[in-house]
Amino acid sequence: MTETDSTGATRSRRDPEARRRGIVQAAADLLMESGDLTHRQVAERAGVPLGATTYYFASLGELREAALAQLADRLNDDLARITHEVAAANGDVAVLAAQLHAYLSDVDQVRADAALYTSAAQDPALRHLALRWFDGFVQLTSAWTDPSTARNIAVFIDGASLHATLTGKPLDLPTLTSGLKALLRTEDEEA
Amino acid sequence: MTETDSTGATRSRRDPEARRRGIVQAAADLLMESGDLTHRQVAERAGVPLGATTYYFASLGELREAALAQLADRLNDDLARITHEVAAANGDVAVLAAQLHAYLSDVDQVRADAALYTSAAQDPALRHLALRWFDGFVQLTSAWTDPSTARNIAVFIDGASLHATLTGKPLDLPTLTSGLKALLRTEDEEA
Amino acid sequence: MTETDSTGATRSRRDPEARRRGIVQAAADLLMESGDLTHRQVAERAGVPLGATTYYFASLGELREAALAQLADRLNDDLARITHEVAAANGDVAVLAAQLHAYLSDVDQVRADAALYTSAAQDPALRHLALRWFDGFVQLTSAWTDPSTARNIAVFIDGASLHATLTGKPLDLPTLTSGLKALLRTEDEEA
Amino acid sequence: MTETDSTGATRSRRDPEARRRGIVQAAADLLMESGDLTHRQVAERAGVPLGATTYYFASLGELREAALAQLADRLNDDLARITHEVAAANGDVAVLAAQLHAYLSDVDQVRADAALYTSAAQDPALRHLALRWFDGFVQLTSAWTDPSTARNIAVFIDGASLHATLTGKPLDLPTLTSGLKALLRTEDEEA
DNA sequence: TATGAATGAGTCTTCATTCAT
DNA sequence: GATGAATGAAGACTCATTCAT
């Protein structure tokens, strides 16, 4: 279908990198939508023959890992962006709460999180992917809070994401705000 | 083997309820251990013939739901117990933190949580099971805090459980304590 | 097809033993004919659905072993019969040679041997099957020769079978006779 | 790596014959080791790109045949050497037995035989390869025995090789010696 | 009531072969 | 001349579910 583009050159076919990306993307989509992953589903979704999925990935596990890594990357980027914005606002809790609320309002984001956590919970080999953002967040956030508080906030965010997955909607902004505000105040009074 | 005892009464055979319970228990165990569930595995684990699993449950989905309901019940009971103890201690945060830490140190408990959340994340029809404890906790806890705080604590606990699943060990007690303390202090100053 | 027999009773279906035998027989036939064995081929040959072959045998290897065991049994029986007849003739070499020549003239027998040896050569776990007749022969024959001579005769017979496989026809009777006669004379002069 | 040497000449690349030999050798090794043969395995073992295996051989069958021909050549050479040594010793049976025992003690030799016979048994088109040594042996040996005896000895040797394959070790030297001695004595008394 | 035989759909995976480059 | 991307057919195996008994 995408055989020819505006330049008239053939694409996709004989473009291994694009093909590989397409397969990973299809797998990531499927993981977000159903959590199930089969070669057949991936092939159909990516618009490639069945053999292509096994040609590019030695096993379904390898493909799953690649797809989850992609989701983890995105999650990482998003949370790093949020963290930076909060840092730019001198750690303003309202900013953090607002950003988080927006994040949790995005169905795709929440689904990506869920796919990541679900897969990681079932396969220990994938846990490092699910923990990547956590560790990164704690590190970034430690610039303006102590590590213990940073961990607690990260834990709270994970809980909020799980809650959004289970209820289908984010925690209301006031609750989110009060929770984050409370957790962040710790440092001032406890150290 | 334990088919007949000294009284001449048959045991698991001819005791449909016990058999059903055994099947559910076996299914719950398998969900905790691997997340996979097949009729064959359940039958073998429960020590019943293959046909029994389809005889007592119309479909595998139904059996899975029954197994998850059992896990949810247990989770419910455990957290209700913890809540009561905390209430008895007049909402002492240290007691809550200690109880929660003990809970998260129990591998089986954490696995049960993970099985419940994983299944619920993938199948919307099961979400009410995963939310059962959340709602109950908020209700019980609202006796000594405001609902918003109660929700935040519940969210935090979910996050901590997820974290325990992903790292294989609970958050350290001091961090847990400081987080819960911070969240609970909110009510005094914000309401 | 064989659903009903002269008694009007249904057969084959719901006759697990017969079904199992039919599958093994089909597998043995295929091993004799081509040396290859696939579930699909077996199912088609046996006239059963594909799933039946995996229902009765946990793996293709198990099915192959059962089929080879059947071939080995037959080989065993045939050679035991020959041995008995030779023993009845007081170890008359001419009788042995004639029987062996007849045996090697039977295309199916030779093919069965070849299937057995070929499979055993490729899979050490199957070697005991291929050696069964050898050991039995040596034991039986030791009644009228010394063990070393018995072994040599067995080796010679194996070689003759291999030769028949490769050339498509048995060694000519005179050659066979002279070989066996020579090997059997040993005992008189060497012990 | 060994693509270019000090003379500036390319080695395996740009040396089609060497490459072809390398592929055949790799295939022969694989046949000896597992009996299985795939383009991928051959390419990896030979250290050539996948395409090279199909470039030099029109089909896998052709490659297999070339590999077996190589094994047959080696077998031929070895047995010709043995035959010559025996002839040089004026047909001394002890020499023949010792040489054969050494041959059967060499795991690789026995494996090569097994690969050859196994393939030939399954594919009639390959039988001439497995018979090559037999015919050569009979011809060479007929210099000092009659053809019938030569055939019987060749049959015996094949049986001994098969036996070594199945048991993992050669027939013991005394048994081997007595067998060969007996077979060779025939000529003196029968002719 | 209870069971295990039965099966067809679907799983992952391998691979010979083709062919564009 | 050489190569590796590509794919469709086939492989072993699993399993929920049905149903005869």
Give the oligomer, counting copies of the same chain as homo and different chains as hetero.
homotetramer
SSE series of chain A: HHHHHHHHH
Q: Can you name the CATH architecture of the largest domain in chain A?
A: Orthogonal Bundle
Number of strands of chain A: 0
CATH-assigned homologous superfamily of the largest domain in chain A: Tetracycline Repressor, domain 2
Structural class of chain A: mainly alpha
Per DSSP, the total helix count of chain A is 9
Number of domains of chain A: 2
| Gross geometry of chain A | elongated
Question: What percent of residues of chain A adopt helix (DSSP H or I)?
Answer: over 70%
What is the fold named in CATH at topology level of the largest domain in chain A? Tetracycline Repressor, domain 2
Largest interface: A-B, 42 and 41 residues
Radius of gyration of chain A equals: 20 Å
Terminal Cα span of chain A: 60 Å
Contiguous uncertain segments of 5+ residues of chain A: 1-12
CATH class of the largest domain in chain A: Mainly Alpha
**Beta-strand residue percentage of chain A:** under 5%
User: Main β-sheet of chain A, in a few words?
Assistant: none
| Average pLDDT of chain A | 90
